[in-house]
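Exercise 7. Given the encoded structure of a 125-residue chain, write a plausible sequence.
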């Protein structure tokens, strides 16, 4: 195989990229202080000393709320490009499209409400 200047330049750029990525990693391994004990093994809680066990079990409702928030938050984010795309157009068709999308979101909220997802239990076990 014959190497041209382009092949050499590509290999040099690849080598420089690996060097730029590897140099900080190698430097941190070689130059980082080696300390152990003390407060290094404690969980971080905003500068305050923690109390209780760090390995507590959260109820599943926390995760349900997080997933519901993500689902509806991502769906609402679709309204921003729609507003930009339909900003120069006036008409009933665009209003109907956005209304169908919002109705689908509303039906999702009603479905989850009827299933009791939004009710917080008195005690999480």
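Solution.
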């Amino acid at each position: 195989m014959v190497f041209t200047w382009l092949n050499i330049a590509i290999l040099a750029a690849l080598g420089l990229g690996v060097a730029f990525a590897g140099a900080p990693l190698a430097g941190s391994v070689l130059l980082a202080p080696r300390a152990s004990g003390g407060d290094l093994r404690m969980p971080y809680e905003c500068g305050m000393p923690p109390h209780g066990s760090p390995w507590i079990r959260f109820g599943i409702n926390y995760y349900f709320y997080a997933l519901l928030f993500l689902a509806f938050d991502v769906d609402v984010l679709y309204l921003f490009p729609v507003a930009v795309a339909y900003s120069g157009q006036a008409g009933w068709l665009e209003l109907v499209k956005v209304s169908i999308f919002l109705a689908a979101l509303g039906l999702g909220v009603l479905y989850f409400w009827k299933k009791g997802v939004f009710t917080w239990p008195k005690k999480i076990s």
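Remark. The mean pLDDT is 81. Students should compare their own answers with the one above.
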